[in-house]
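S2.1 Query sequence (Antitoxin)
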Amino acid sequence: MMPTANDLKTVTDMREDAIGLLNAVNKKKNPIVIMHRNSPQAVMLSVEEYNKLIEMVDDYMDELIAMDLEKEPYKPDDYVSEEEALKELGLK
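Output structure tokens follow.
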């Protein structure tokens, strides 16, 4: 996504109208880029959009782990019984 002029705000904008920026980011569902001295410094997201990103990253990482587990052959010696695992974790 390429930010538009409406999605670029300055530190001064943030200082002078923080509530307005919060309302805008929640209303539009688009991130707002906070600029300082013509350089992007931060991105403001709604909590909803942030949670979507976190969920996507979690799903991606789970997929990578699953792919790694499918590649590597495991031997019976690699496993422990449920009883051993509980004992190691101090749950039994």
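The longest helix spans residues 47-71. Residues 48-88 form one domain.
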